[in-house]
Write a structure and sequence with these properties.
The protein is mostly beta strands and about 280 residues long. Helix content is about 0%, strand content about 55%. The strands form three sheets. It has a nine-stranded parallel beta sheet with strand order 1-3-5-7-9-11-13-17-19, with no helix packed on it. Strands 2-4-6-8-10-12-14-18-20 form a nine-stranded parallel beta sheet. The longest helix is centred in the first third of the chain and has 6 residues, at about 75-80. The chain is globular and about 55 Å long.
Length: about 280
């Protein structure tokens, strides 16, 4: 658990939360994330935190608006780990985020063995498209790791409900996801897809790694998904192969790693506009 703090109203400008106690629940309510600096998250929940309720977040940031960051190796371990507390992130509720960024409104990143589970995410939507998020909700990380991304059994019991996008990306899934439920997703405006595993596939010099797309999923339900977008970002390499025609789709699984697979994954009530595909 994190910080013995009860309901508060705060203005957030780059709040990073690390575990320091296991006694009570942290609530962040009615907050405005205002930070236009690159690499500056609005609210960043670090490895080892649990029992946190984040509600009614608005604003615009230069990076992720709300991030759950469970990095199991590298400098984050030294900076944020607390002796005697597991690095896993769990029992987090994030509701009513209405904001804008270039990156993600809500992102779940766990790598190098850190687990993330019992996460509830609901009513997350873009406020405008001045920046336009690559994903409104992102589950999984495909670049920021030392040895490996998450594997089956490390990201599970994730519930995502009520996600609305007006541009670029909507939901991105990477790494591995298990025993989870995604529902009530709407992608309109210039959005490229409703649910996607697509990411650019090239070497990132700063990280010395190849950014990839793709996800392994077991026992996952994805339902009530509606794509009504105009696919307005076809020349952005995070969204599409530049120069490749793409009319948008509800489920974009064009990028998968050779060892990725889907097992007991249910797609139900998936809709797309007439000139777009349901699944690619």
């Amino acid at each position: 658990m994190c910080w013995r703090i009860f309901p508060v109203i705060i203005s957030v400008i780059g709040l990073s939360i690390k575990p320091i106690a296991q006694t009570a629940e942290l609530r962040i309510l009615d907050s405005t994330a205002v930070s236009l600096s690159p690499n500056q998250d609005g609210i960043d929940v670090r490895a080892g935190c649990s029992n946190i309720y984040i509600n009614n977040i608005t604003g615009r940031t230069g990076d992720d608006v709300v991030a759950l960051s469970g990095f199991g190796a590298g400098s984050d371990v030294e900076r944020y780990s607390v002796e005697g507390i597991s690095p896993d992130i769990h029992d987090i509720t994030i509701t009513n985020v209405f904001a804008d960024t270039n990156y993600s409104l809500v992102v779940l990143r766990n790598t190098d063995g850190v687990k993330m589970y019992r996460i509830w995410i609901e009513n997350i939507r873009t406020s405008d498209c001045l920046y336009g998020p690559r994903s409104v909700v992102r589950i999984g990380e495909n670049l920021y790791f030392k040895e490996r991304t998450s594997i089956i059994g490390e990201t599970y019991d994730i519930t995502v409900r009520g996600v609305y996008s007006l541009c670029r990306g909507t939901i991105f899934i990477g790494g591995a996801l298990m025993n989870s439920h995604i529902s009530d997703v709407y992608a309109g405006g210039t959005s490229m897809s409703a649910v996607s595993t697509f990411a650019k596939n090239r070497l990132e010099p700063r990280q010395h790694k190849i950014a990839w797309g793709g996800a392994t999923m077991e026992n996952v339900v994805i339902e009530n998904v509606y794509y009504n977008g105009a696919a307005g970002h076809c020349d952005e390499e995070w969204m599409n192969e530049p120069g490749t025609p793409f009319s948008g789709c509800a489920l974009d699984f064009r990028r998968m790693r050779p060892d990725d697979y889907l097992k007991n994954v249910v797609f139900r009530d998936i809709f797309s506009k007439v000139d777009s595909e349901l699944f690619m």
